[in-house]
Design a protein that fits this description.
Blueprint: E1 3-15, E2 24-37, E3 47-59, E4 63-74, H1 77-90, H2 98-120
Antiparallel strand pairs: 1-4, 2-3, 3-4
Length: 134
């Protein structure tokens, strides 16, 4: 079934000091919670809301990016119950669903974070293609 929505709820970026020496950049993505959502557009109650947090830390304490939001995913009633029960039991997503949700979050967050780094003059957090002379 499809992803029917993607929303940022909190966007924070800060540069705390000038870059000197070697810079270590660490990325982290986590699903913070999962809940059933009712959309006002339809009477369907078969929508799951995946709340996420995407972090980029520039170390040693040079800067930080924090993106929080959610992904809305529609599925049939039986599958929604299955996914919710699995999440409540061990905080894991089904193997067939996890890549779809996580790849959507990564794609949107990496693009947003890349744009934000330019605003505060931090280096890109992902490797960009570079041309080298022969």
């Amino acid at each position: 079934m499809p992803i029917v929505g993607f929303n940022f709820e909190k966007i924070t970026i800060e540069k705390t000091s000038q870059i000197t020496g070697k810079l270590n950049i660490k990325n982290d993505l986590s699903i913070k919670s999962l809940e059933q959502e009712k959309l006002n557009l339809t009477s369907a109650e078969n929508v799951l809301k995946f709340n996420f947090e995407f972090l980029v830390n520039y170390e040693p304490k040079v800067g930080k990016i924090n993106l929080n939001g959610n992904v809305l995913y529609m599925e049939d009633e039986k599958k929604v119950k299955e996914i919710l029960d699995g999440w409540k039991k061990d905080k894991k997503l089904p193997e067939d669903l996890a890549p779809q949700i996580l790849n959507t979050i990564l794609a949107k967050c990496n693009i947003k974070a890349l744009s934000l780094t330019q605003e505060v003059n931090l280096p890109p957090h992902i490797r960009l293609p570079v041309l080298k002379p022969k």
